[in-house]
Amino acid sequence: MKKLELHWQILIGMGLGVLFAFILSYFEWGSGFITDWIKPFGTIFINALKLIAVPLILASLIKGVSDLKDISSLSKMGLRTILTYLTTTVIAVSIGLIIVNVFEPGKSIESDTREELVESYGGDAETTRQSAQKQKESGPLQALEDLVPENIFGAASSNSNMLQVIFFAIFFGIGMILIPEKQSRPIKEFFDSLNEVILKMIDLIMLAAPYGVFALLAALVVEAPSADLFIALAYYALCVVGGLLLMIGIYALIVGIFTKKTPRFFLNGISPAQLLAFSTSSSAATLPVTMERVEEHLGVHPQVSSFVLPIGATINMDGTSLYQAVAAVFIAQAFGIELSFAAQLGIIATATLASIGSAAVPGAGMVMLVIVLGQAGIPEAGLALIFAVDRPLDMLRTSVNVTGDAAVAMLVAKSQDKLGDPQVKDWDDNYKKEESEK
Ligand code: ASP
């Protein structure tokens, strides 16, 4: 019998997870059961994905950079990558601004709903504001300073230092390019084989994906806030969702124009990573799967994907920047503040920078939203208005973040002549080979 494709398996897992949680919520013991006995499997699944992230970046980026053989190809690719990332982010923020200005969702918020929201979520909003405060207090070059770790083992010991690990890997790769090939060969072989082992580990983790997302979604349903607040915020949420879906369409279009690949090919290839991003709300946790899909299913050469994708997972967040633009203007509208054209241009700049600075973890976009609000003179207390629907929007914007990374990887690969045919390896390929060799 033909095996069901992975994205269908994951979708079924998600659907069953939601259904299971709804059914169990009817019983008094249901939510406790899900929290105690189902949720841990979701956490284990996310942990397994995160576990792979640092070794994967090290192995694949060092291999990718050292394969380039000369520094000028590296700087050319680096420049193209950063410029394309910036362009897609500015497009995303602009789409967000157009939508929120045309549909004006903030004007439909009644004042008693606003008060109810501020009352229910004021405390959470304050916590978010405090975590943003630390970022705001740092100097203008802090981000650059943070890029260079003083100890690689220290940096590699936490997933929140991904950019430092990327810096080390690129630096290490450059060192390898600059020494004679005879001397770099053993270390290159070591990283090549480490890379293969890690890719195989990702295949194994993905076997558990349908069960992992089942657990994650079931836990989300029982922890979700009341439906009434969702309804009050539906118009705002619809604007964000509409913008995010439009963005996915734009990626498919741009990829089609520049690479001649059909939208179906692109979206089919990347869909398991999109679904995982949706279930985990973390582009960092999804990175191993994004890399695998982009290399094996979209045909991007590992030299490009290993460079473009880890950087993208940390700095390219188009979904996040679009959401920040809509949320900022929505809050201004709800408080009756008129934003001038200049203030909206300011939002393009700050939302672009804030999305670069957002960590690739759940809820990070909302923390950085505080900075966008601060710059535009919008009351930060307004965060309380959007708290109730933040999680579902986070799920969708993370999917868009990951889709954007994949699209840019294809564009950069095409421009470097490194876009080929998909080379799909099944998780049990080696096993089958050994069997047939017997
Ligand atoms: N959760 C998002 C990500 O990991 C970031 C955010 O928008 O909160 O890509």
From TrEMBL:
Indicate how the chain sits in the lipid bilayer.
Multi-pass membrane protein
Q: Mind telling me which residue stretches traverse the membrane in this protein?
A: 7-29, 41-62, 82-103, 162-180, 201-222, 234-258, 367-389
Q: Which is a GO BP term held by this UniProt record? A: L-alpha-amino acid transmembrane transport
Primary location recorded for the protein, binned into one broad class: membrane
Keyword Transmembrane among record annotations = yes
PROSITE patterns, per this entry?
NA_DICARBOXYL_SYMP_2
Q: GO cellular component annotations, sorted alphabetically? A: plasma membrane
Can you name one GO molecular function term for this protein?
symporter activity
Q: Which UniProt keywords apply?
A: Cell membrane, Glycoprotein, Membrane, Symport, Transmembrane, Transmembrane helix, Transport
Where is this chain's protein located in or outside the cell?
Cell membrane
Q: What is this protein called?
A: Dicarboxylate/amino acid:cation symporter
